[in-house]
């Protein structure tokens, strides 16, 4: 049985939280993934008051639509592996606040980007800093019973579940797992996506569903804003892989349509695209 949710950036930006939750439900989705991105507006959510947190929890209970996961993409701006000591500490502080926010809102799973560094240069130091800082984050998360899940990225640093498993050899904890992105693992020519999923099953706590264009000798690929069915991801085959290996959990549809006038139509279209292929692959969908 799989449960289909949608990331917040797919939903019309102007909606209140109550309306976002109802919108997701009306489009067929079972949960929303909260976005804490690089913008000051969304980073400020980490400092929501008790009243603001309680209001969102009440909306969740009233609508019956949970916020099961959080996407902490603010770590692109404040990467865990930064060689800058202030940014290094800021990234840990952001993660601490995100873990407490998740605990307060009932979010079970924080997805962090698998970047040691994003805007600045990578080095041996940024890799070591990433592992060192991530260990601090995982320790704090375990104290609060919140899962930290590394996403496979549009970056070679961590672009497969296999690489996440290598990180787990350095940080042995049940509170550190993998959040593979089907589009990202499919885009890299060195990956065999079905094998990566099968070998990494025991570490998968959620799956992102998006389309991408592959990296080739003449193209850097395209990792965002590729309409479903117009990219190179073999969704039917990957869904059959998930069925074969016995994956049972959440699938999060990922788009960046929140500023589009037709955001709701895109949400419905994506839900239809994904559910038809899931059903064809034999995966049961939780309503």
TrEMBL record:
In this protein, which residues make up the domain named Xylose isomerase-like TIM barrel? 24-263
Q: Which GO terms describe its molecular function?
A: intramolecular oxidoreductase activity, interconverting aldoses and ketoses; L-ribulose-5-phosphate 3-epimerase activity
Q: Does the keyword Isomerase apply?
A: yes
Q: Alphabetically, which GO biological process terms does the record hold?
A: L-ascorbic acid metabolic process
Spell out the InterPro entries in the cross-references: L-Ru-5P_3-Epase (IPR004560), Sugar_Epim/Isomerase (IPR050417), Xyl_isomerase-like_sf (IPR036237), Xyl_isomerase-like_TIM-brl (IPR013022)
Q: Does the keyword Isomerase apply?
A: yes
Concerning Pfam families, the annotation shows: AP_endonuc_2 (PF01261)
Q: Which SUPFAM superfamilies match?
A: Xylose isomerase-like
Q: What is this protein called?
A: L-ribulose-5-phosphate 3-epimerase
What are the entry keywords? Isomerase
């Amino acid at each position: 049985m799989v449960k289909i949710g949608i990331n917040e950036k797919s939903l019309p930006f102007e909606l209140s939280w109550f309306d976002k939750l109802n919108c997701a439900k009306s489009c067929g989705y079972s949960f929303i993934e909260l976005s804490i991105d690089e913008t000051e507006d969304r980073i400020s959510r980490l400092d929501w008051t008790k009243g603001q947190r309680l209001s969102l929890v009440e909306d969740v209970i009233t609508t019956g639509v949970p916020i099961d996961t959080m996407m902490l993409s603010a770590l692109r701006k404040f990467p865990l592996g930064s060689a800058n000591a202030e940014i290094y500490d800021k990234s840990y502080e952001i993660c601490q606040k995100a873990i407490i926010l998740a605990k307060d809102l009932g979010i079970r799973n924080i997805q962090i980007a698998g970047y040691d560094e994003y805007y600045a240069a990578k080095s041996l130091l940024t890799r070591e800093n990433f592992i060192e800082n991530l260990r601090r984050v995982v320790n704090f998360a375990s104290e609060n019973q919140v899962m930290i899940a590394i996403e496979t990225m549009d970056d070679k640093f961590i672009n497969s579940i296999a690489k996440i498993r290598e990180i787990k050899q350095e940080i042995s904890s049940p509170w550190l797992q993998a959040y593979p992105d089907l589009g990202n693992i499919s885009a890299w020519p060195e990956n065999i996506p079905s094998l990566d999923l099968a070998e990494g099953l025991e570490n998968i706590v959620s799956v992102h569903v998006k389309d991408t264009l592959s990296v080739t000798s003449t193209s850097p690929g395209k990792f965002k804003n590729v309409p479903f069915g117009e990219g190179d991801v073999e969704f039917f085959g990957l869904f059959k892989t998930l069925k074969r290996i016995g994956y049972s959990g959440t699938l999060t549809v990922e788009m960046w349509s929140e500023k589009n006038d037709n955001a709701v139509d895109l949400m419905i279209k994506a839900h239809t695209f994904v559910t038809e292929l899931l059903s064809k692959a034999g995966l049961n969908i939780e309503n």
